Each structure stands twice: as structure tokens, then as C-alpha cells.
Amino acid sequence: RLHAVDITSSSFRLMWPKLLSQETGYYTLEYAPAAGLARKRTQQVSGAHTSLLLSNLAPETTYEVALIPESNVHYFPPQTTRVTTLAEEISPVQVLISESGPHSFHVSWAPMLASVVGYQVLYGPLPGNSVKVLEVDGGQNSTVVENLAPNTTYLVTVTAIYRSGKEKSLSAKACTLEGE
């Protein structure tokens, strides 16, 4: 049976049983997004192969894949499978600090991604190791950090938590203003 392994957001490896040999024929591989079969791509593969890596694919997309054994000895029916690539998991690419006051500042980040279920904003004074955590819903891209010490530099880390359980982080420094 044709099946896929090592699935990522942009690639997967197809595996199939050995049906042909170098001498008895070759395979024609056809694949296309299920939603756009007109964009079908075709590849010829030597009969000696039993696997192939497909790359440069779109994330979060279901592909229809057909492996057609072209044998000059036997007829083999085409093998088909459907493979869905994973969501693209990119970390926040920018963390912006604004509206700094003596006891608070505003943290925002981009981009907003549908595959994120939530964010954790970790912050603590530098130098030091007391870190506090704010949980932020995946539909938001900013929060206000409050109850801070004046005239202090903080390290702020925004961690995106993906549906898959993976996490990606980005940090920035923030300074509170001098107190009154």
C-alpha cells in the first residue's frame, strides 16, 4: 500500500511495496492539491525505487497522490492515497514594546496565525531570575504587562503554542520609565 511518512508543512515521503524492478518498468507519480486537481504534477520514478520525497508543497493542504506502475510484464492497478501537510509553524517574527510607563508597558507581536491556540508572555527584570507568566488567547496579539518596578529593564519572551503542541519563542527587552 502506498503511504506517506515524515510529513511536514512542505513535504512528505511516499513509501510503497516493491512491485517493479529496474528492468520491468517504471512508476508514474501524479499528485495535486485535492482542491485544485488542475494543478496536477507528474513525475517518473525508476522501477528500482520504493520511496520518494515530495517537497515544495503548500502547508495545511490535502494532496491526492496516485502511483501508477508502468510494467511491461504485468498489469498493476494504480495505488492512491491522500496526504495532508501540517500547518506551518513559524515563530512570532516581531515583538513590539510600546506605551512604556513607570509600572507597565504594552507588548504586541506578529504575525497572527490560525494554527496557534495561545501565547505565553514571560517577563522578568534583568538581571534576575524572577519570571512571571501571562497567558494570552490565540486570537489576540497584544497584552499589557502591569505592576512593574520603575526604571527597570525587563526581558519579555512571547511563546506561541501550536495545536500540534510545539512551541516557538521570540524575546525583546523593555524598559520602564523612572517613577514620579
Any overview of this molecule?
- With 180 residues, the protein is mostly beta strands.
- It folds into two domains: 3-84, Immunoglobulin-like (Sandwich); 94-176, Immunoglobulin-like (Sandwich).
- The protein contains no helices and 14 strands.
- Strand 8 and strand 9 form a beta hairpin.
- The protein is rod-shaped and about 90 Å long.
- It starts with a strand and ends in a 5-residue tail after the last strand.
Proportion of residues in β-strands: over 45%
Low-confidence stretches: none
Q: Mind telling me the CATH class of the largest domain? A: Mainly Beta
Biggest sheet, spatial arrangement of strands: 4-3-6-7
Summary, kept brief:
This protein is mostly beta strands and 180 residues long. It has strands at residues 3-5, 12-15, 25-33, 41-46, 51-54, 62-71, 79-84, 94-98, 105-110, 116-125, 132-137, 142-145, 153-162, 167-175.
Quickly list its features.
14 strands; mainly beta; Immunoglobulin-like; 2 domains; 0% helix; 4-stranded antiparallel beta sheet; 180 residues; rod-shaped
Blueprint (SSEs and pairs):
Elements: E1 3-5, E2 12-15, E3 25-33, E4 41-46, E5 51-54, E6 62-71, E7 79-84, E8 94-98, E9 105-110, E10 116-125, E11 132-137, E12 142-145, E13 153-162, E14 167-175
Antiparallel strand pairs: 1-2, 2-5, 3-4, 3-6, 6-7, 8-9, 9-12, 10-11, 10-13, 13-14
